[in-house]
Amino acid sequence: MALSSIFGGASPSQQQSTTATGSSSKVAGIKEQLKTQIGQELAVANASELVNKVTENCFEKCLSNPYSSAEEGCVDQCLAEYMRSWNVVSKAYVARIQQASTSGEI
Amino acid sequence: MSSISPNDLSNLDDNSKKEIMTFLESENSKQKVQMSIHQFTNICFKQCASNVSNGNLSSQEETCLRNCVNRFLDTNIRIVKGLQGLQ
Question: What sequence ranges are listed for the domain Tim10-like (chain B) (predicted)?
Answer without folding.
Answer: 23-84
